[in-house]
């Protein structure tokens, strides 16, 4: 699994993440500076209020004090509301755009990369992990932008009033800062484990839902429940560790705040009693220090959340940094002559024996070719190679005279349609499922394609005919109906190459007859590759390739192979016997 770069999170990666929202962030920072100014003003005004009103007993100013406090809190509250709203909506936009980018990157990955990762893990990274990234802006950066300037202003006021007393109150700060940093790094690691187990739990739930019949028929309920409980408990333990560490950080700040205020009260009260400083100075410093420790505590918490988000970002970047499919530049415009395999070998893993070994064959335009052979012989791998879902490690594949690796992927695949045993329909209307092959087609063309595929009649009997919504994977249709919708999709595409991958193997005889009739219509005059499973598929082929252990060991017509290949004759008899059993 090759990556564009190591999964490391430098600050420039974070900046790239928030750069699209710079204007929103700048406006939020301006409002945060207003909040900072109001916090500083509160601490600054304590001295004149104490000295002039209460010490000098100038009570005529007392009536202005509540109005001043009210004004400060109105301005501070409005600015705080504005900066919180801007930062949190920026965080939501980040999540929205990251999900869009993640989805786009995922769709651009080669199938080999996607196959190495559980689908539930990808879903978890898309939904759960990315949602946490909003905290970088809405919590961490918002806190940094507001609380760091506030802390600096308040420290400046306290130092101005009495520098020695202020420094005295910060004796514990370095210890807590170092402790917070170490704890935050540990939280980052724990958060990655939490997200990993969240993905595992998503997988277990998906596994249960999709495989519920197998679970019930084999009585696996207790085993699956025990498995889920074990992994759920591990997720709980890691989550509890994150909470424990985060709250421990807050607890350290609370202890530091208590010690610092106690030191100020002890030392500062002596200075007031001895006349070294006024009560106004003393209370101004006390106010500033108390106001300082709240933002400092928030900064520590924000740093911990920041580290958590980095752990999540590492998981997201682990997918987004994968190499996308590599497309060539040569456009494919139909099939003019042939498709040729020249000394092609392919292995799914470097250390495994090749699935295909030095394969050579040519499919001429308009030919119907069938591949037969034992399970695991490499038949489906040939289809994946033609569609460029995978590339051979050795040899070359040609579409006419264009090496497949040099072909533009979009134009290549626009010339290919696949109808497989495992039909994939989307949770959309029947009409839209057919239109996916050619979105610019009109409804008349959709309807005609469905008639060719013998699908029109059953579609018209559906509740909303062509506008009927399909459930997940189209499971509110029968197997034969799903196949005919898939064939209609292929008909509408009007491909240069039609691939039939055991398209009728899972159907009953009545459904097979309807589907086979549909297939026969669209095969006429069209280059077709068939992965054969039933006799009806084999008998329609111009040539048949017999594959065994990754090699083509025989090729020819059905009659020729029956006479000259013992393995083919055995396979044919097996297929024939299977058809008889199904008909009986």
Structure description:
The chain has 584 residues and is of the alpha/beta class. It has a domain at 11-320: ABC transporter transmembrane region fold, CATH 1.20.1560.10. The chain is 64% helix and 10% strand. It contains 20 helices and 10 strands. It has a 6-stranded mixed beta sheet with strand order 6-7-8-3-9-10, with helices on both faces. The protein has a 4-stranded antiparallel beta sheet with strand order 2-1-4-5, with helices on one face. α2 (22-55) packs antiparallel against α3 (64-108), α2 runs parallel beside α6 and α7 runs antiparallel to α9 (221-273). The longest helix has 53 residues, at 221-273. It is elongated.
- CATH architectural label of the domain at 11-320: Up-down Bundle
Unreliable runs:
1-7
Shape: elongated
Radius of gyration in whole Å, from Cα? 35 Å
Helix content: 55-70%
Overall pLDDT score: 78
Category by helix and strand content = alpha/beta
Q: Give the helix tally.
A: 20
User: How far is the first residue's CA from the last residue's CA?
Assistant: 49 Å
Main sheet record = 6 strands, mixed
Sheet-strand content, in percent, reads 5-15%
Tell me the strand order in the biggest sheet: 6-7-8-3-9-10
């Amino acid at each position: 699994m090759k990556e564009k770069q190591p999964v490391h999170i430098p600050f420039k990666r974070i900046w790239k993440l928030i750069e699209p929202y710079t204007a929103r962030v700048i406006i939020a920072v301006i409002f945060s500076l207003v909040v900072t100014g109001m916090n500083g003003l509160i601490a600054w005004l304590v001295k004149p209020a104490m000295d002039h009103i209460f010490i000098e007993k100038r009570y005529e100013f007392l009536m202005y004090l509540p109005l001043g406090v009210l004004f400060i809190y109105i301005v501070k509250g409005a600015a705080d509301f504005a900066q919180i709203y801007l930062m949190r909506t920026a965080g939501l936009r980040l999540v929205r755009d990251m999900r869009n980018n993640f989805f786009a990157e995922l769709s651009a990955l080669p199938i080999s990369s996607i196959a190495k990762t559980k689908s539930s893990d990808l879903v978890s990274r898309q939904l759960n992990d990315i949602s946490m990234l909003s905290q970088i802006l809405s919590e961490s950066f918002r806190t940094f932008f507001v609380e760091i300037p506030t802390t600096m202003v308040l420290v400046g006021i306290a130092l101005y009033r009495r520098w020695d007393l202020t420094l005295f109150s910060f004796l514990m700060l370095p210890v807590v800062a170092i402790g917070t940093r170490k704890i935050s790094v540990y939280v980052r690691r724990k958060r990655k484990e939490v997200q990993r187990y969240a993905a595992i739990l998503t997988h277990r739930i998906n596994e249960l839902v999709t495989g519920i019949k197998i679970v019930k028929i084999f009585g696996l309920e207790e085993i699956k429940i025990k498995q889920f409980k074990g992994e759920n408990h591990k997720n709980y333990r890691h989550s509890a560790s994150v909470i424990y560490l985060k709250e421990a950080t807050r607890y350290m700040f609370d202890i530091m705040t208590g010690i610092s205020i106690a030191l100020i009260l002890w030392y500062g009260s002596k200075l007031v009693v001895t006349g070294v400083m006024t009560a106004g100075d003393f209370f101004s410093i006390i106010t500033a220090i108390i106001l300082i420790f709240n933002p400092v505590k928030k900064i520590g918490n924000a740093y911990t959340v920041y580290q958590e988000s980095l752990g999540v970002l590492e998981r997201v970047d682990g997918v987004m940094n994968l190499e996308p499919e590599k497309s060539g530049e040569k456009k494919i415009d139909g099939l003019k002559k042939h498709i040729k395999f020249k000394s092609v070998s392919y292995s799914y893993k470097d250390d495994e024996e090749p699935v295909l070994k030095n394969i050579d064959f040519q499919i001429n335009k308009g030919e119907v070719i069938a591949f037969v052979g034992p399970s695991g012989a490499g038949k489906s791998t040939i289809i994946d190679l033609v569609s460029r879902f995978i590339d051979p490690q050795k040899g070359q594949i040609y579409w006419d005279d264009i090496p497949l690796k040099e072909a533009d992927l979009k134009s290549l695949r626009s010339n290919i349609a696949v109808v497989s045993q495992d039909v994939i329909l989307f949770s959309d209307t029947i009409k839209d499922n057919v239109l996916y092959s050619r979105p610019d087609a009109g409804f008349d063309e959709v309807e005609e394609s469905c008639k060719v595929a013998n699908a029109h009649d059953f579609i018209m009997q559906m509740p909303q005919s062509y506008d009927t919504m399909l459930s997940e994977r189209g499971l509110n249709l029968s197997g034969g109906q799903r196949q005919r919708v898939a064939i209609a999709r292929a008909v509408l595409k009007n491909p240069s190459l039609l691939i039939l991958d055991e398209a009728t193997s899972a159907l009953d005889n009545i459904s097979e007859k309807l589907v086979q009739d549909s297939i026969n219509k669209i095969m006429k005059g069209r280059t077709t590759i068939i992965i054969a499973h039933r006799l009806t598929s084999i008998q329609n082929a111009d040539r048949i390739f017999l594959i065994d252990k990754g090699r083509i060991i025989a090729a020819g017509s059905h009659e020729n192979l029956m006479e000259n290949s013992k393995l083919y004759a055995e396979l044919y008899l097996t297929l024939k016997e299977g058809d008889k059993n199904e008909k009986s």
